[in-house]
Specification:
With 437 residues, the chain is an alpha/beta fold. It contains 17 helices and ten strands. The longest helix is centred in the first third of the chain and has 21 residues. The relative contact order is 0.13.
C-alpha cells in the first residue's frame, strides 16, 4: 500500500511536469542577436531543434541490447560444478558447453543460483573463486548471483555461514529487530562470498498446521505479527547491501500439499487473501523489496482459470502489480517443480509466466527449450517488445540499485574467511536463541 501511494505521488508529479512542458518547457529558447537580445531575428539559416539527451544508466544499457541479450536476462539457471572454468557433463548435456563460464557466455543469463547439490558449494575460497569467475564470464552486464539462504530448515550455504535461527524461532521472539539483525548477518556473509541476491525472507503466513512445505520457514501464523518481521528482514538485507526476495506470492501458508511434488489448491476468497496472506507482502513492498517470488499454487477464487499463480495474470499483474503497487522484479519459484508443470510443457510454461507478469525465470528444467520458446514468442509478437523491455528494465534497475550494473564487485577470499562465522555474527545467533519463546 505504501508503494501504491508513492506511485500515485509520482504520477501527480509527472502530470505537473507535463503541464510545464505544455507551457513551453523543452522547446527551443527565443533567438538572440549577436548582442544577446532576446527576440532579435536569428541570422543563421540552420533550423532550430530540440536537443534530445542520450540515454544513460539503465536506459543506455537497455538500448544497446539485442533481442537475444534481453531474453537471456530473463533467466536464472543452475550451473554445475565448483569452478567457473571446470568442465561438467551436466553442463554439456543441459547447455551444450562444458563449463559454467561458457554457459554464461553462450546464453548471457541475467543471473545464476548456487546449490550444494550442483557442486557449487565446497568451501569459502572455492565459492569466492566461483562467483568471481562467473562475473568475469559476463563482462557486459554483471550477474545476479542468488542463493536460497533462509536459515533454519533451508540453508544452502551451511556449514560455511553462521548458523542463524530459522524464521519461526525469530518470530517467537516477538521482536522485529531480531529479524533485521539476522538478515543483516546473513546478507553480509553472502555478499562476502560474491552472492548478491537472497531468496528470502519467507512472507507466507503458516495458517495450516499440516503445511508440509512452509511450517517453520514462516515467522508465524498471525499476519499481524509476520508482516513486521518480514519488513524488518528486508531492511536487514538492505543494510548488508544485497537484494532480497519475499516469497511465495500470493501465499503458500494454507496448504497441505507440497508444490515441489504436487499442485496445491487454496480456497481463499479475495477478502480472506487480503486479510490473511497479503499483509506481509504489502509490508515488504513498503520497505522497497527488490523481488517477489511467485508460488506454484492455485487460488481459484482469485483466478478461475485454475492456473498456478506463477502463470496467472490476474494474480501477478492484477493483485501484485496493480492492487499492491509492486514495481520490482517478479521471480518464479523453481520451474522444475511439479506444481507448475502439470498443465503445460517447459517451453509454454516460460512464455506463459512472462505473459502473466513474471520478469525472472528461475531454474527451468530444460533451459534451451525455455529460452528458445521465449525468443520465438518475442520474434513472433506473442510477447511484445514493450513487454520484454518492461521485464529487462526491472532487472537492470535491480542491479543498478544494488551497485551491480556497471561493474560487478570482486569478492575477497581473505575477507570472506574473516566475515563468515565471525564471533560477532555468532553472538547475534546466540542472542536470538536466548530470546526465543
Amino acid at each position: 500500500m505504501v508503494r501504491f501511494m508513492r506511485t500515485t505521488g509520482l504520477a501527480a508529479i509527472a502530470t505537473m511536469v507535463a503541464g510545464c512542458a505544455g507551457a513551453g518547457a523543452g522547446t527551443p529558447p527565443p533567438a538572440k542577436s549577436a548582442a544577446g537580445q532576446v527576440g532579435a531575428v536569428a541570422t543563421s539559416s540552420a533550423p532550430s531543434r530540440s536537443v534530445i539527451p542520450k540515454p544513460s544508466g539503465v536506459e543506455a544499457v537497455l538500448a544497446g541490447m539485442s533481442v537475444e541479450d534481453k531474453v537471456g536476462q530473463l533467466f536464472m539457471p543452475v550451473l554445475y560444478g565448483s569452478a567457473a572454468d571446470g568442465s561438467s557433463g551436466e553442463n554439456q548435456a543441459r547447455f551444450g558447453v562444458g563449463t559454467p563460464a561458457k554457459a554464461v557466455a553462450k546464453y548471457r543469463p541475467g543471473g545464476v543460483i548456487l546449490f550444494p547439490w550442483a557442486g557449487n558449494v565446497k568451501n569459502v575460497r572455492q565459492v569466492v573463486a566461483l562467483t568471481n569467475g562467473l562475473q568475469k564470464a559476463s563482462p557486459e552486464i554483471p550477474l545476479l548471483i542468488g542463493a536460497d539462504q533462509e536459515n533454519g530448515k533451508v540453508s544452502r550455504l551451511a556449514p560455511l555461514v553462521t548458523e542463524m535461527p530459522g524464521a519461526s524461532v525469530i518470530g517467537s521472539t516477538g521482536d522485529p529487530a531480531m529479524a533485521r539483525k539476522a538478515a543483516k548477518v546473513t546478507g553480509t556473509e553472502l555478499r562476502a562470498l560474491g552472492i548478491n541476491l537472497d531468496f528470502a525472507p519467507v512472507a507466507d503466513v503458516n495458517i495450516n498446521p499440516r503445511n508440509p512445505v512452509i511450517g517453520s520457514r514462516a515467522y508465524g501464523s498471525d499476519p499481524k505479527k509476520v508482516a513486521p518481521m518480514v519488513a524488518a528482514a528486508v531492511q536487514g538485507f538492505h543494510d548488508a547491501g544485497i537484494a532480497s526476495t519475499a516469497k511465495h506470492f500470493p501465499g503458500h501458508g494454507d496448504t497441505n500439499v507440497d508444490s515441489h511434488t504436487g499442485l496445491p489448491v487454496i480456497q481463499h476468497s479475495l477478502s480472506q487473501w487480503s486479510r490473511l496472506d497479503a499483509p506481509p507482502f504489502a509490508a515488504a513492498i513498503g520497505k522497497d523489496i527488490d523481488a517477489i517470488m511467485s508460488a506454484h499454487v492455485v487460488m481459484p477464487k482469485l483466478d478461475p482459470s485454475r492456473d498456478p499463480a506463477t502463470l496467472s495474470k490476474p494474480i501477478l499483474t492484477g493483485l501484485l502489480r496493480e492492487k499492491l503497487g509492486f514495481d520490482g522484479v517478479v521471480s518464479t519459484d523453481a520451474l522444475d517443480m511439479a506444481g507448475v508443470r502439470k498443465k503445460y510443457g517447459d517451453g509454454q510454461v516460460a512464455v506463459r509466466a512472462i505473459q502473466a507478469g513474471v520478469d525472472l525465470l528461475l531454474m527451468p528444467p530444460d533451459f534451451p527449450t525455455a529460452y528458445q520458446a521465449v525468443l520465438t514468442a518475442v520474434k513472433s509478437g506473442k510477447i511484445s517488445t514493450r513487454r520484454l523491455d518492461q521485464s529487462v528494465r526491472r532487472l537492470l534497475k535491480l542491479k543498478a540499485a544494488r551497485g551491480l550494473l556497471e561493474r560487478a564487485p570482486v569478492a575477497d577470499p581473505a575477507k570472506a574467511e574473516r566475515v563468515l562465522r565471525s564471533p560477532e555474527h555468532r553472538k547475534v545467533a546466540q542472542l536470538i536463541n536466548a530470546r526465543a519463546r
